[in-house]
Amino acid sequence: MRQIVLDTETTGLSPEAGDRIIEIGCVELLHRKLTGNTFHCYLNPERDIHEDAIKVHGISNEFLQDKPLFSTVVGEFLAFVKDAEIIIHNAPFDVGFLNAELTRIGKPAFKAQVKNVLDTLAMAKELYPGKRNSLDALCERLGVSNAARKFHGGLLDAELLADVYIHLTRGQDALLIDGEEQGPDGIAQTRMDYSALPLPVIRASAEEMRAHEKLLDDIDKASGGKTLWRQTSPA
Known catalytic residues? Predict the structure, then answer.
């Protein structure tokens, strides 16, 4: 499966109030492995950045003055994410900003152009209820090094989130997937290892045991005492 891990940086917190995207970072996963393919751009938001936002991502108004508009890069961006599963931390935030940018230039909503969107913040809240589940907190909890993260950054955060996502979901693969081999028809076949799955033991009830004994009695009677079940069963 092709997946794209995506992060954005913005001028502020509210697209409804006119805040804009100033950076998009994407990294590609194929069969849960980083391919090295990325999409990254800085954008001129045509407005000033809130001071509080600059403290978060460190991107200045002066730095963005000569950067392209969203409308200039949208074709390349949508081609990169097309039909992929998109992985975002706190997806409603980024998708809200992307939808605002797309609406502004007459394009369909973001989710209409990708396979689906997976929110790792929602996943983390289910796995670690009541705990901090920011990207930094998850990096610390899952052993993902974020030493290079002095500020938030689109591409850096997407790369960190890719590692976090793989750690969050690694049990799914470790439990079931045991490599691939080629079948006689030349088609790759995935071997599944179910040995680690917990198998429930459902014991027969007293009523079921009585019914079983009656059935054995009937079979024994019909065969003239030639059945072997009771002879071989443990005492």
Answer: 152
